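Worked example

This section walks through a single chain of length 79. The input is the sequence exactly as stored; nothing has been trimmed or padded.
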Amino acid sequence: MTVEELKEEIADILGVSVDQITPDAGSETLAEWDSMANLRIISLLDEANDEPLEADESAALVNFAAVLELARKRGLVDG
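Given that input, the structure is written out below as tokens.
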């Protein structure tokens, strides 16, 4: 998937516009990024990957920059 597709997926999970998905968009900046949304984001990454995320990886997903970094590390995002 591309970075833009990842942004769109997360925006859909959160119910916000793609424009709101900035690097610092996360639980501290968006009320919609609550624990349930975080679980859905983890599930999104799990489904795109052959291996489930480690607990420390899941815990680190506090904003879009962290999600993108992990997605790149796991080879889930092009570019």
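What to look for: The domain at 3-73 is CATH 1.10.1200.10 (Non-ribosomal Peptide Synthetase Peptidyl Carrier Protein; Chain A).
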